[in-house]
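Researcher: We're teaching a course module on how sequence relates to structure. For the next exercise, students receive a sequence and then see the predicted structure as tokens, so they can try to spot secondary structure elements on their own. Here is the exercise chain.
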Amino acid sequence: MKKKLAVLTVGAAICLFTAQAATAAPVTVGPVTTAYGLFDMGASSYDALTSTTTILLDVSAFVAQFPSANPTPTPFLDRKFDTISFALLAGPNERITKVSYSESLQTVVTQDPAGFSYTASTGSAVVNNVSYGLGSFYQLTPTGGTSFSLGTSFDIPGLENDVDVSITNDILAFAFGDLSSATVMKTYAAVEVTSAPVPVPAALWLFGSAVAGLAAMRRKRREA
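Model: And here is the predicted structure for the students to work with:
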């Protein structure tokens, strides 16, 4: 019995060492839902050196402008709003350690001397029911093109390998006056997910419990 336990221990140690040395695999995306279809999923890539999966979001349709090419129910104002929700799933024996979201936007504003115009952008991200704001940006003066960024980052505690994400964005363009106009558009959006193997100590503790259980069962059989 001692020899069997020794063999099991050595074998488990080798397996645990291999698991700890392995690099985490890319994180995959579960079912995706959007409120109004202004968000969409894009391509994804994986950096093995940092164990980071980058998931691009298609935001080409996320534009607010006035005067608008499409009729708007609100005079002088075009507002666009959307929420995208999805799940992030790490591989077996892996955990998600960090989730970050970033987006880039551009705004153009012209003003009639007798009018007024501006753009506004804001949003929030929810990860595992914890909400953080993305910040906000307001363009109140004329500009031929101003670029800016919004975003946030989450550290994921514990051994989570399944994380729920929801991102909400709200942009608007207001223009009053014959020569006034306002446009704000998203030019880039991405989610970055860092993953890692489950730490060895937890797995080793489980293995030790299993070995102790086998030894106890062996003794009971002998005593019987």
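Model: If you want an answer key for the exercise: The longest strand covers residues 94-110. Helices lie at 2-21, 200-223.
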